[in-house]
Design a protein that fits this description.
Layout: E1 6-12, E2 17-22, E3 29-36, E4 44-49, E5 52-57, H1 64-75, H2 80-84, E6 86-93, E7 104-105, H3 108-116, H4 125-138, E8 144-148, H5 158-161, H6 167-173, H7 182-196, E9 205-210, E10 214-220, E11 223-227, H8 248-258, H9 262-271, H10 274-279, H11 285-293, H12 297-316, H13 318-321, E12 326-330, H14 331-336, H15 338-347, H16 357-362, E13 369-370, E14 379-381, H17 386-397, H18 405-409
Parallel strand pairs: 1-6, 6-8, 9-12, 12-14
Antiparallel strand pairs: 1-2, 2-3, 3-4, 4-5, 7-8, 9-10, 10-11, 13-14
Helix pairs in contact: 1-4, 11-12, 12-15
Bound molecules: adenosine monophosphate (AMP).
Adenosine monophosphate binds next to helix 11 and helix 14.
Length: 411
C-alpha cells in the first residue's frame, strides 16, 4: 500500500515548462526544474532533486513534449520512488474565462473549453494544451487537474468586471475584466485567515502580489471582489516591463501621430514599459534599488511611481471592502523588498499605516511576518506558494475510485 502520494505540478509557458513534484499535505518540494528556450535553437533543462542540481541540453527545437519525455525517461527513471508515488498531475492554466470558478478534473470538455479561451490568453492557453497532451501520453494512468489563474476572481461582482464600453462587447465577445494571479491571491488569503485566526469566509484583505508581473486584489469574506488586472495582465499596477493603467487615448495618439502599428504598441506596453521603461535601466527591482542608492535618477523615479501607483490602488480598495483586516505583501518584490514596502506605507500614512523598521527588515527571504506597528492597520508579508495550491487542488480532485485517493486526502 502507498504510504505517500505526490503531485506533479506543470506550468507550461510559451517557451518554457516548469515542473515540480510536491507533497500536497505539507507543500514539500521533492523535485523541481524548468525546460527553457523551447522551440528555439538551444533549449535546455535544469532540475534540482534534494541537494543535487543538474542540467542538460535538449535537441534543437525541442518543445513541451520533449521536456516531459526527458522528465520521465531520464530524471524519474533514476528516481523510481518519486515516480511510483505520483498520484495526479496538476496544470497551471492562465485563462479559464467565465467557465471555471474552481479547479477541475480534465476531460475532453475541459480541453475544449481551455481551447475556447485561447483568444484571451494566446501565449499561454495553447502551451497549456500542449502540456496536457504530452502529460496524458506520458502518464496515461494519472488523473490530470486544471487550476486556473482566473478562477479566484470569478466571484467579482458585475460592477467590478464590466468595462464602461458598449455592453455588446461583453455580451457578444466576452470582453470584460477577468484578473490573474488568482492562485497566489487565494494562497495568501487562506494563510492570512490562519494567521489572523479568522474564519476564511469572514476575512477582508488587500492582497498585493508584486513580482515581475504585479496585481492587487480586494478580498471580502474570503472572496475576490476586485482586482487590478483586467481582460489581460496589462491593466493595473506598474510592473517589470508592463505599463499597467494608461490613458486609452494614448494608444490612438501613438497610432495616429507617431505611426505605431498595433504590434509595436503591444510590444511597447508589454515589454518596454513599467520599471524598465521608466528607469531606462532594468525591470529588476533589486537592480533598481542598488542603482537608486547610487543616485540613478531613472531608478529613483521608477521606484517612486511603482510605489505611488500601488498606494493609490490600496487606498481605492477601501471602497469595496469597508473594513480591512490586513494588507498583505507577496511575490518576489512584496516578499523581499523592505524599501518598496516602506515607501508604500509612507504614502498610506493618512490611513493610519505605520511599519516597524526592524519587523520590515526581518520579513524577507522567505520569512513570514507582521511588519506593522501595534494598533495600526495590520500589514503582513506572506511568501506565496502557487505550486502548493495546485498540488492541493489536484489531490482533492483525484476521483474516489483511484487507489491513491485515501493516501492523498489523509491529513
Ligand atoms: P517574481 O516575478 O515573483 O519572481 O519577482 C521578481 C522580482 O522580485 C524582481 O523584480 C526581483 O528584482 C524582485 N526581488 C527579488 N528579490 C528581491 C530583493 N531581495 N529585493 C528587492 N527585490 C527583489
Amino acid at each position: 500500500m502507498q504510504t505517500s502520494s505526490h503531485v506533479l505540478v506543470l506550468n507550461c509557458g510559451s517557451s518554457s515548462l516548469k515542473f515540480a513534484i510536491i507533497d500536497p499535505r505539507d507543500g514539500r518540494e521533492l523535485l523541481s526544474g524548468i525546460g527553457e528556450s523551447l522551440g528555439e535553437s538551444a533549449p535546455c533543462i535544469r532540475w534540482k532533486c534534494g541537494d543535487t542540481k543538474a542540467q542538460e541540453s535538449l535537441e534543437s527545437n525541442a518543445g513541451h513534449t520533449e521536456v516531459i519525455q526527458f522528465l520521465v525517461g531520464q530524471i524519474l527513471s533514476q528516481q523510481p520512488a518519486l515516480k511510483e508515488h505520483l498520484a495526479a498531475i496538476g496544470h497551471r492554466v492562465v485563462h479559464g474565462g467565465e467557465k471555471f470558478s474552481h479547479s477541475v478534473l480534465i476531460d475532453q470538455a475541459v480541453i475544449n473549453a481551455i481551447q475556447e479561451c485561447s483568444a484571451l490568453a494566446p501565449l499561454h492557453n495553447p502551451a497549456h494544451l500542449l502540456g496536457i497532451d504530452a502529460a496524458s501520453r506520458a502518464f496515461p494512468d494519472l488523473p490530470q487537474i486544471a487550476v486556473f489563474d482566473t478562477a479566484f476572481h470569478q466571484s467579482m461582482p458585475r460592477h467590478a468586471y464590466i468595462y464602461a464600453l458598449p455592453y455588446s462587447l461583453y455580451r457578444d465577445h466576452g470582453l470584460r475584466r477577468y484578473g490573474m494571479h488568482g492562485t497566489s491571491h487565494r494562497f495568501v488569503t487562506e494563510r492570512a485567515a490562519e494567521i489572523l485566526n479568522l474564519p476564511l469566509n469572514e476575512v477582508n484583505l488587500i492582497s498585493a502580489h508584486l513580482g515581475n508581473g504585479a496585481s492587487i486584489t480586494a478580498v471580502k469574506n474570503g472572496q475576490s471582489v476586485d482586482t487590478s488586472m483586467g481582460l489581460t495582465p496589462l491593466e493595473g499596477l506598474v510592473m517589470g516591463t508592463r505599463s499597467g493603467d494608461v490613458d486609452p487615448g494614448l494608444l490612438m495618439h501613438l497610432g495616429n501621430h507617431l505611426g505605431f502599428s498595433i504590434d509595436k504598441i503591444n510590444n511597447l506596453l508589454n515589454k518596454q514599459s513599467g520599471l524598465q521603461g521608466i528607469s531606462e535601466l532594468s525591470n529588476d527591482c533589486r537592480e533598481l534599488e542598488q542603482a537608486a542608492e547610487q543616485g540613478h535618477s531613472g531608478a529613483l523615479l521608477a521606484l517612486e511611481i511603482f510605489c505611488y501607483r500601488l498606494a493609490k490602488y490600496i487606498a481605492s480598495y477601501y471602497a469595496p471592502l469597508g473594513e480591512v483586516d490586513a494588507l498583505v505583501f507577496t511575490g518576489g518584490i512584496g516578499e523581499n523588498s523592505s524599501l518598496i514596502r516602506q515607501k508604500v506605507m509612507e504614502y498610506l500614512g493618512g490611513l493610519g499605516y505605520r511599519l516597524v523598521p526592524e519587523r520590515n527588515l526581518q520579513a524577507r527571504f522567505g520569512e513570514e511576518g507582521a511588519i506593522s506597528a501595534d494598533d495600526t492597520p495590520m500589514t503582513l508579508v506572506i511568501p506565496t506558494n502557487e505550486e502548493w495550491v495546485i498540488a492541493r487542488d489536484a489531490a482533492a480532485l483525484v476521483p474516489p475510485d483511484r487507489p491513491c485517493h485515501d493516501a492523498l486526502t489523509r491529513e
